[in-house]
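Hey L., structure's done. Input below.
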Amino acid sequence: MTTVSTTPTPAAAPAPGLPAAAAAPQPAMRLREIVFGAACAAAVRAACRLGVADALGETPATAAELAEAVKTEPVPMERLLRALSCYGIFTETPDGAFAHTEMSRLLREDDPDSLRYISLWCTEPWTWDVWPRLDDAVRSGRNVFEDVYGKEFFDYLHQNAHESAQVFNRAMTTSSVQSALDVAALLDLTGVSVVADIGGGQGHVLASLLEKHPSVSGTLMDLPGVVARADERLRDGGPLAGRAAIVAGDCREGIPVAADLYIIKNILEWDDDSTRRALRSVVAAARPGARVVVIENLVDDTPSMRFTTAMDLLLLLNVGGAKHTRQSLVDRLSEAGLLIGEIRQVNPYLHAFECVVPD
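Output:
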C-alpha cells in the first residue's frame, strides 16, 4: 500500500541575507496585494502631488521632517512612506528615517529620467471612474469613457479637464524625450537624406536624429494642435530649423511628404480601420525602396508586459484602442503591403519593426 505523508511541506526559506518578510508571498497573500493595488497607485500619486521626493535630499529624513517640508501631518506622512517603502519606493532606515531609492528618485521633478508626470497621468481622476467598468468594456469591446462622461476622451480632456490635459502633455513629452535618444541610437541612417516623423508629436525623435546626423534633413507631421507645440529646436530660430519642416495634417487622410525614411512611433493604437488608413497613407506617399520604421509597445514577448498590458486595457477603456502583439502588428504591416525585415528592441518598452516599401 502506498502511503502519503500528511506532514506539511515547509515554506521556502527567504534568500540568504533577507528577512523573513522579504520571502515571496504565498498565492493568497499575493492576490490580496494585487486587489489592493489601487492603494499603491494612490500612494504614488499622493507622493507626487505632495512633492515628497523633491523634499527629500541625499540625507535621510524623518516623516516629521518631511511632513513639515511639504505641509502635511506627520503621522499620516509616516503611514504613506511606510506603504511606499514596501514597494521599494523610498526605504526606511533602522532608526526610522526615510531615504531615497532608485524608484523614489524617479518621482523627483528634476531627475533626468523622471516618471513624475507619467505617474500622475496614469492615476488621473478619470482613471478611477473608468477602471471599475472594465467588465463592461470587455463585454462590449468598446470604450466606456463616453458612457461615464458623455463625451469622447480627448474632447472631455481639453474641454472639461484642463489640469489633466496639461498632465497628459507633460507625460507624453517626458516619455518622448526619454525614448527619442534610444531611437536615435538604434537607427542606422546610412543612405538616408530625408527622414519623416509621421504622427511624431512635438518632434523629439526627429530632433534627436537631426542632431546626430548633420547631413540629414527632416519633416515632422502631426495634427495642427500638436505641431503648434513642436520642439523649439525645430521651429524658426531653432538650431535645427534650417533642416526641418513642420507639416500639420492627419496621417490617416494622406501624407504629403517625400522621404527616404518614414518613422511611425506609438500611433497605431487606434481602431483597426484607422491603423490601416495610416499605413496605406505611408505606402502611398513613399517611393519604392523607402524605409518605414514602426515603433510600438508590444503586449507580448517583452520584459515590460505588466506595464504594456495595463496600458492596453486603459486604451480599451478610454478610446477603444489597443496595443499590438508582435503578430498583430506584423499582420497589419503585411496587409499594408510593406516588406518586414528585422524586428529589434529599442528599450524594454519599445520594439522597432524595420520595413521597406516594395518596388
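The beta strands are 91-92, 98-99, 194-198, 217-222, 244-248, 261-265, 291-296, 339-347, 350-356. The two ends are 74 Å apart (CA to CA).

-- N.
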